[in-house]
Amino acid sequence: MSANSSPEGAPVWHSLEVNKALDLLDSNADSGLTPQEVEQRLQKYGTNELEETGGRSAWEILLDQFKNIMLLMLIAVALISGGLDFLSWQSGQLKPGEVPFKDTIAILAIVILNGILGYVQESRAEKALAALKKLSSPNVRVIRDRKLLDVAGKDIVPGDVILLEAGVQIAADGRLIEQSNLQIRESALTGEAEAVNKQAVLTLPEETSLGDRLNLVFQGTEVVQGRAKVLVTNTGMTTELGKIAALLQSVESEPTPLQQRMTQLGNVLVTGSLILVAIVIVGGVIAARGFSNLQELVEVSLSMAVAVVPEGLPAVITVTLALGTQRMVKRNALIRKLPAVETLGSVTTICSDKTGTLTQNKMVVQSVYTNNSSFRVTGEGYAPTGDFQLNGQNVSVDQHPEIPALLVACAVCNDSVLQQEKGQWTILGDPTEGALVTLAGKAGIEKDQWSSKLPRVAEFPFSSERKRMSVITQVEEVSTGVSPMTAVDPAIAHMLNQERYLMFTKGSPELILARCTQIYLGDKSAALTDAQRKQILAENDNMASKGLRVLGFAYKPLTEVPPENSDETSEQQLIWLGLVGMLDAPRPEVRAAVQECRDAGIRPVMITGDHQLTARAIATDLGIAKEGDRVLIGQELQRMSDQELEQNVDLVSIYARVAPEHKLRIVQALQRRGRFVAMTGDGVNDAPALKQADIGIAMGITGTDVSKEASDMVLLDDNFATIVAATKEGRVVYTNIRRFIKYILGSNIGEVLTIAASPLLGLGGVPLTPLQILWMNLVTDGLPALALAVEPPEPDVMQRPPFSPRESIFARGLGSYMIRIGIIFAIISIALMWWAYNHTNAPGYQGDREAWKTMVFTTLCIAQMGHAIAIRSNNRLTIEMNPFSNIFVLGAVVVTTILQLMLVYVPPLRAFFGTHYLNLQELGVCIGFSALMFVWIEAEKIFFRLMGKKTV
Ligand code: ATP
After folding, report:
1. Range name among 240-249, 478-487, 501-510, 892-901 with the lowest pLDDT average
2. Could you give the domains of the chain?
3. Residue 658 gets which letter from DSSP?
4. Is 353 a catalytic residue?
5. What residue's CA is closest to ligand 1, atom 12?
């Protein structure tokens, strides 16, 4: 074992200097690896992925299916029914041709089938969620072959040089090459919530513990602040996280509120049915004054127990939620937490960022204001071509020497990269900064050139709280004897005297101006007068009220590099350079989406870090701000108590110049007012607000990894209109869930009542066997219910107010519908049963005397077909609807009817299901009675319409 290597021979990275580490990995801090090297290393080390070790194993998922109380009850029914068969078989009471244990075997088969079905669905759902998570997994910014690239995290190899900035979740373990104000939250690894300051210059003793390795960064941890360049040392399962991968990789598939309520409903139904069974048995024994009819009573009870349980429901709900998620992804809304699918429809307030969500985030500088003159800038997109105009005339910037100084600040105090790809100018990085590089380029001031002329030696990075950033540059070293002053470019020649460093600062104009004491006039700087301040602020307001995003610029000559974290003291006594105003046009589709929100009773609210006038101009343009709506500024909000904020929160539709921590207070205030809030966010500090919101929404394109991790949903296109589209899908999903619950449970109630009625009417014998009931609940109810799950939206889905997510599943008439329709269903089938019993027991009847039971069975099934067709709409009559708009319902009805007829007319199936042959007249009567169900529901719709009542 050599020094600086672990017992396994791997280097101990934290004990090595950067250059040694770079040598060991045969890499270069400036140029990175070449594509060939990356390819070779991918072969050697494999991809940077963690093996999935968490989550439930296949067996666990399968076993979980049988923990369901309803399935347990079915197993009990199967065993009791098996016991009864055994007794009859032993005592030789089996009818000729009757197969013993048929019900038991069939019920057990269906229990197993149901278990397997549940298993397949759940494991598919887990896989789908895992895949969705991968879709949102972060890209990494890497230097390869001297170029800056964004690559998928899995393609990172040891030796890669990667760049980190605030909000990034680190993709691999690495050794810091350089850093600036770097703070990292390592809670994922060490459990320590406090962020850690990291330093590249350190070399640490070998025995340093994980939490103290301050020159290393680790996979899965998060950059809270600052930036860094990192040499990747370990990837995949060899990272520190990889060693404990089981902790992180498990995919959360928490049950949704609805699934939880369904489990509760299951418990209620099982308990209810057991009570019913007890009543029937005790009542029957008392009525018969003995146990003579015990076997029949037990059979009736078993059938009732099976009938009351909606065996198909859990499967239908899972499928519906899964389909909802898929439809949302197609509309660019990626669901990260399943409950969001069903609760999205309940959103009452959408709090949205401005930049990128309501606007296009394609910035073009339109105005520049320096020293009393306002210049218009022409040109489109990020192409660095265009003119500077003063009073409508093109001007040369050299005639206005304060402009080149401002443009140098634009180019140097900047982290974005302007690229030309296939003739198209694009940017890598923040569009605000991209627009500034473009602006400078229009006057021939190129970022690359100036970055080497004025190399960056330190910086105070941008954050949404600070609303500004500074870059400290070193004025080029020149050969001895020549003073730096004369060697520098004329563009900055007058900006400094003997100082060796120049700090450039840009940010929110009010903030920057407040830190300035002088103004740059092109050839000198002078004290900044109050009149000048007023004028600058007036021009700022003027630009902002046109909807422009305005940034202020300043600089300061320095004799030495300021220490880290000294921003508050260093960014003082600055020299003002000017204002730059850029246009970020609203997204064209947002206006319609805002209107749709309003129609749907959802209030859109803009929350932005930008200036109040810029915010108001854009919010008014988009229809977000209405007459009388208030604009609240971050500073005012800061002064308000929580109670005051709560009193005002329903009146404010624009929050401007806010910091991320204000977002949390806004969500909380809205929630205390009973609102159900969706909130967007992209920065690392937005995470608490995203977690607090009922639906936290992260930006797919501009969002930081940390914000995505905290969110329920990711907008793949960053677009506000997508939130509205997803909300609509949420409403459709919930409406459809309610629809098939009505459909399934209404039928269950009908079945139970019909079965209970048979001994009461003294008909003798159980009309439906457990097997037939299972068939109905799973197949003839299950298939149409699945088809109802994909029912397209009703036309008025976005023209009604949202419903509370906390309302009971039985609210808004669902409970009464179930009971009402259950009773109607029972009345129809009991009437049919009465007729059929008398018909088949009439003297001289030629057919099978038990055929009345099959008539009841058939009627119950076929009546549900009419129910399925009629329930497609709550208020519209079937003839008012396009029968082909949900082809699945038509298909399910046809297939199910054919299957049901096969049970009656195909002899082996008949024998197995214990049905009896029906002649044409009998079948006709069944269909006639069944049709009454459809007629009744349609008549109800007409009745409610005449009463002016609308069901939703
Ligand atoms: P939204 O919250 O709607 O996305 P925003 O983009 O204005 O709005 P932030 O990104 O937090 O919000 O920016 C807040 C303010 O900070 C901006 O209005 C601007 O004045 C300033 N700012 C934005 N980007 C930069 C930057 N790269 N450098 C310096 N200052 C910036």
Report:
1. 478-487
2. 13-52+130-250 (2.70.150.10), 255-324+727-946 (1.20.1110.10), 333-357+588-718 (3.40.50.1000), 366-582 (3.40.1110.10)
3. -
4. yes
5. 609
